[in-house]
Amino acid sequence: MNRSELTFFLLGKKYGFDLKKMLKFVNDNQYWNEERIYNYQLAQLKKLINHIYTSVPYYHKVMEDIGMQPEDFKDIKDLKAFPVINKQTIRDNFDLFLAEDYKQYHPMQRSTGGTTGIPFKYFIDTYSWCLNWATKMRTFSWGNYTFGKDKIAVLKGGSMYRKGKYSPKTYLWNYLNNYYTIPIMNLTNEMMDIHFKQVKHKKIRYMRGYPSSIYTFANYLKSRLITYPMKSIFTTAEMLYPYQRKVIEDVFETGIIDAYGCGDGMAGANQCELRNKYHINIETSYMEILSLDYKNEVKPGDEGIIVVTSLHDYAMPFIRYAPGDMAIQGKGPCPCGRGLPVLEKIIGRSSDLFKLANGRILNGLSIPFEEWADKIEKFQLIQEEPDLIILKLIPKDNYTEKDESQIMDLLEYNAGEGIRIQIEKVKNLEFTSAGKFKYVISKVPQ
Ligand SMILES: [Zn+2]
Predict the structure, then answer these.
(1) Would the pLDDT of 163 be above 60?
(2) What is the SS3 assignment for 76?
(3) Ligand 1 geometric centre to CA of 208 (Å)
């Protein structure tokens, strides 16, 4: 048992559950068939529905309103009677979402920045957090990485990094998990040289972080004609563009395993070693991909809104919660043979959709800027007004007038009639406070 596994094991002991069993459980059931997955999720949902009816004021009222008693819940389809909720619903009814007995689930308080910048607070059960962590360990094992045993470079954001320092708790966590952290708020060439020397010196063969920051690091090494063999790279939390994947995979001579994670819904979906489809973690949540009006489940291959129901959060249960993310519904199983249901692709946040004055809905993340990956350092597409889109970009030396007019054509074509497009060359583009980079921002209220 390495120090990461030991920490995990002790944490479980403290709260009365066995994390070794949990790990075995998630590793075994990645090969479950559809029926077994259905039965497992139905059993969890039945328990949860019973709990929310008796102990969660918000849901007691919802169930009264829709005329449902716990014993009426017989099929996962019955979940569709519940309204879809979002961050605002929870903010407006925070106390009503808390179970009367919430303390007994050892709730851990969490918060996210949220797209509007208003912090979003919520509680997760310790059990749920641990099960989610076990599914993370499973995913990392798909890239042959073992938590705690293998050293990993972690490119980390700002929410844990204050005044040039991490908190003592973060330092301890980093030590226990054998992390070498690279703060991404400060990725200057000089710092990247220092970190790269350390990566070589410590013989680190794994890396994880946001696509934009790993890309910045890889692109810098590329400009210095450096390659360095890694065993696996893990990305999450942002759109991973094909041009980023290419540079990162060329420089580090290995493939990227990309993941989608939603901490507020305890949901996750991860690529396997085939680096194609995203396998849904069936243990922690039930996931639906719904049409934009939330009425129907979309067909395989179509894009829709991710809606999740966390299966093990009893302190503050969210039923049919839309975290604001979009995905393409899976078409058939992954050739790797795992039974977990899949998504084809994660396509960004629903707040990234531009609802234009001419009636079109434009997904800013889907505009193919790849062609200019060698000529543009970074870009950001902003919907300023219903009929105004601004592209801010940091040009490289080889960026020409011709490129600009081609990009203008591309944007005009995608936006359609009556939409004004402006291109602004800038020197710098800001990260969010958590260190993520937003390629697309809509300032128009949705
Ligand atoms: Zn697979």
Answers:
(1) no
(2) helix
(3) 20
Residues 302, 371, single domain; the answer is: no
- In terms of domains, do 383 and 235 share one? no
| Structural domain ending residue among the three candidates 305, 322, 349 | 349
Query: Which position has the higher pLDDT, 283 or 437?
Result: 283
Q: How far apart are CA 157 and CA 213, in angstroms?
A: 9
pTM value? Answer: 0.83
Pairing mode, strands 108-112 and 120-124: antiparallel
Ligand 1 centroid distance, CA of 29 (Å): 14
Share of the chain above pLDDT 90, in %: 60
pLDDT of 432 > 80? The answer is: no
The pLDDT tens digits for 335-348 are 999 999 999 998 87
Is the same domain home to 218 and 239?
Answer: yes
Cα 152 to averaged position of ligand 1 atoms, centre (Å): 23
Q: How far is the CA of 264 from the centre of ligand 1 (A)?
A: 25
**For residue 288, what is the enclosing H or E element?**
strand 285-290
* Residue ranges making up the domain that contains 124: 1-349
Q: How far is the CA of 278 from the centre of ligand 1 (A)?
A: 7
Q: At 115, is the pLDDT very low, low, confident or very high (cuts 50, 70, 90)?
A: very low
CA 275: distance to chain centroid?
Answer: 16
47 C-alpha to center of ligand 1: Å? 30
Do 333 and 375 lie in a common domain?
no
pLDDT band at residue 116 under the 50/70/90 scheme? very low
Distance from Cα 7 to the centre of ligand 1, integer Å: 29
The pLDDT assigned to 430 comes to 78
pLDDT at site 20: 83
Q: How far apart are CA 201 and CA 241, in angstroms?
A: 30
C-alpha 22/C-alpha 283 separation (Å) is 10
Q: Identity (one letter) of the amino acid at 254?
A: T
State in Å: Cα 155 to ligand 1 middle. Answer: 25
Give the domain-ending residue among 349, 367, 390: 349
pLDDT score for 162: 52
CB contact at 8 A, 338 and 272: yes
Give dist(CA 414, CA 369) in Å, integer. Answer: 12
